[in-house]
Amino acid sequence: MIAPRYSSVYENTIIRGAIYQVPPLNLAAIAGALTARGHQVKIVDMGRRKDHELIRSIKDFSPDFAGISFTTPLAEEAFRLAELVKKIKKDVLIISGGAHSTALPLSVLQESVIDVVFIGEGDYSVVELIGGKPATDIKGIGYKQNGEFIISPNDEFIYNLDDLAFPAWDLFDLSEYRANKVFARRNPAGSIETSRGCPYGCIYCNKKIFGKSYRPKSAGRVIDEMAYMLRCGFREIHVADDCFSFDLERSKIICEEIIRKKLGLLWTLDNGIRVDKGDDELLNLMRRSGCYRLSFGIESGDENILKLIKKGQTIEEVRRAVKMAKRAGLEVAGFFMFALPGETSRTMQETIDLARNLDLDIAKVAIAIPFPGTEYSEDLLRQGRITRSRWADYNIHFSARNLYTPSVDWDTIEHYYKKFYREFYLRPSFIIKRAIKSILNGRIIEDIRAVIASFAGYLRSGNREGSQ
């Protein structure tokens, strides 16, 4: 199983210093399902490997199947890796999964040497194929047959997540994964999913894999999986859920059990929770149980844009949630977007002003990208405004001027994108507060390195945008 090098997407961007890698949860989860059935699995994380090492692994392991999971901006790299594998072992069956394969299964089959595409959750369907079940009898799959492309969709989801095997973390050398202390206080850090599915309707989100039906693991299963991760060697856990706090009672029980069982772990909610799905009791329990940072998807400082993107939250709810989290003693990260529907110079400045006025420890702004499978993409396609030239253009931290036509010109978007980072991070008040906190937490060196890397990305992003 192969993971393309995710960090390559952001090497020349402003957030270069904020990118770190943890072992890929998606591959670990599928590998766990396979090893539980007695199959031999090897994982090659290209974020830690070079092409010649992949070639050696294919020659030594001689697999019958080679799996690649990837997102849209990594599609071309995934196709290149698939061709490389085929050159080394012609009879290997190459399978793929992930957001891009699920959204555009036919396109993947047409554009690459990939033989089989898995659509949606692959925990069981991958096991079925590798276990010998004919592709014609498997739902949620796409494949080539006699020169034709067969797509067999699957609208069913896995509802009892407790039945899933634990991810195969033993297949990784965890000593290779070291994150900057700005983003992980203890190394190695690893990811966990405690639920799947998101019932909300944000137009920029792809719901094709996990759907809109919220499906949680039980609190007991979550605690058992966290304990297992600690036994595997992880020292910090990052929750990857879209909706960790959707069921407040379950979330509180998880925190209470972490405390009761004295797991002694540090954990974060880097993928964020909704600003309207939390209360003082939960946030205080999170802090007591070892959580030190959570994120909020704030997106915009303009109420009308929040309605247009179907976010389902208000600016007042944002302010209240951030204050509540800070009151509980948590670090808070805020995620924002530019180039949303209805965007103007005024709305982008409102977003910058909101970010500055909130008591945030970290702020990121991204370009709203119409990823395949999203409502935003479908809207722009109907309007004839997508002009995509290559999959690598689907990058939330590069100018997307080669990709689509937004409601405001790209020169203006790029100006405010850089202005966001300047005005948020170069405030004297923020710099002083951050420096004091970094010194007290022993991470001043890591902060300086992150700043240098991001500044280098800032300069490179300017060169890239100017060359388009």
What's the topology here?
Elements: E1 2-3, H1 25-36, E2 44-45, H2 51-61, E3 65-69, H3 75-88, E4 93-97, H4 99-103, H5 105-111, E5 116-118, H6 125-130, E6 141-145, E7 148-152, E8 189-192, E9 195-196, E10 215-216, H7 219-232, E11 236-239, H8 248-260, E12 266-273, H9 280-288, E13 291-299, H10 303-308, H11 315-327, E14 331-338, H12 345-357, E15 362-367, H13 375-382, H14 410-425, H15 428-441, H16 444-466
Parallel strand pairs: 1-2, 3-4, 4-5, 8-11, 11-12, 12-13, 13-14, 14-15
Antiparallel strand pairs: 5-6, 6-7, 9-10
Helix pairs in contact: 2-3, 7-8, 8-9, 12-14
Please count the beta strands (DSSP E, at least 2 residues each).
15
Structural class: alpha/beta
The CATH class of the largest domain is Alpha Beta
Percent of sequence in beta strands:
5-15%
Quaternary structure state of the chains depicted = single chain
Kindly state the percentage of residues in helix: 25-40%
Number of domains: 2
Task: Say which CATH homologous superfamily of the largest domain is assigned.
Answer: Aldolase class I
* Radius of gyration from CA coordinates: 22 Å
Remind me, CATH topology of the largest domain? Answer: TIM Barrel
Report how far apart the termini are. Answer: 35 Å
With helices defined by DSSP (H or I, 4 residues minimum), what is the helix count? 16
Low-confidence stretches: 463-468
Q: For the residues shown, what is the average pLDDT?
A: 91
Summarize the main sheet: 6 strands, parallel
CATH architecture verdict of the largest domain = Alpha-Beta Barrel
Strand order of the largest sheet: 8-11-12-13-14-15
**Per the principal axes of the C-alpha atoms, what is the gross shape?**
globular
